[in-house]
């Protein structure tokens, strides 16, 4: 496995741990629908939280969350709609981004952007 894949997996694992420590219940990881993948689907209270994890080894060029494009949002929203229908979830959904960067010591820092985008932004 390539180094960037290892880093991405480590970042996603850190995001799951962060969410669990903050009271989220993880329902699914890496949910796929057609060309889309949702990194983490969680639940907190009555909300379904659709979470995109973005990790970068440096923020010199772009912050991780800035890499979530309109086309990526469309794919995530499409996959989220499919998930909600497939599993008969009538809960309200929220779309979050977790941005992961290493600090100078190599520890991962997490920024949780709550309600980062809305479904209608995808059109």
Automatic annotation (TrEMBL):
Keyword Hydrolase: yes
SUPFAM superfamilies reported for this sequence: Restriction endonuclease-like
One GO molecular-function entry: endonuclease activity
Gene3D superfamilies in the cross-refs: 3.40.1350.10
Source organism, top-level taxon: Bacteria
Record carries keyword Lipoprotein: no
Keywords: Endonuclease, Hydrolase, Nuclease
InterPro entries recorded: Restrct_endonuc-II-like, tRNA_endonuc-like_dom_sf, UPF0102_YraN-like
Family: Belongs to the UPF0102 family.
PANTHER family in alphabetical order: UPF0102 PROTEIN YRAN (PTHR34039)
HAMAP family in UniProt: UPF0102
The protein's name in its UniProt record: UPF0102 protein PMI13_00614
Source organism per UniProt: Chryseobacterium populi
